[in-house]
Amino acid sequence: MVLTRGYMRLGQIGRTLRADRASLHHIGCADVYVERVGAGAPQRPMLSRLLQSAEAGDLVCVPSLNDLGRSLPELKETVLLFRNAGLHLNCILEEINTFEGSSEIVYKTIEAVVHFQTRRHVDLIKLGMQIAAETGKPTGRPRVDSSKVETAKRLVKAGLPVAEAAKKAELSVPTLYRYLSRL
């Protein structure tokens, strides 16, 4: 028996838990798995729970593709998890439904778009760096004034907290920590 399950992540601007949950229940989701971890969290316990309880052929509904990944690589990884588990996918906002028609074509299309966007992003970064080099603009981190670093190191050795030493030497705290770690 095919079950319809819902999955969503909290924290997206302009969306509410109540409305998203209602839309998932309206289309027949037996269970709704709500991810409450932060956007950058590598672990998604509710997604893991959904994948453990789902069986091949089940349908997973999400309000939007954004619920599956906060970045293109994360989206691709999640879509591959669903495909490898034999699950169908229904994205309400984007009107993507692998249950109706060829799921393999939809999954391959999502993968191709992710791959295209990732390569495009890399190409744009390389182009920007090439243009910067040709016009003589520096790339990478700005150089740190070594006299500021030495001043801050002396202050820290004298017992001043790192944050205060960084402020007095006009450095950021992470920059000072980076130089202190080299001692």
Automatic annotation (TrEMBL):
<dbReference type="InterPro" id="IPR036162">
    <property type="entry name" value="Resolvase-like_N_sf"/>
</dbReference>
<dbReference type="InterPro" id="IPR006120">
    <property type="entry name" value="Resolvase_HTH_dom"/>
</dbReference>
<dbReference type="Pfam" id="PF00239">
    <property type="entry name" value="Resolvase"/>
</dbReference>
<feature type="domain" description="Resolvase/invertase-type recombinase catalytic">
    <location>
        <begin position="3"/>
        <end position="136"/>
    </location>
</feature>
<protein>
    <submittedName>
        <fullName>Recombinase family protein</fullName>
    </submittedName>
</protein>
<dbReference type="InterPro" id="IPR009057">
    <property type="entry name" value="Homeodomain-like_sf"/>
</dbReference>
<comment type="similarity">
    <text>Belongs to the site-specific recombinase resolvase family.</text>
</comment>
<dbReference type="Pfam" id="PF02796">
    <property type="entry name" value="HTH_7"/>
</dbReference>
<dbReference type="InterPro" id="IPR006119">
    <property type="entry name" value="Resolv_N"/>
</dbReference>
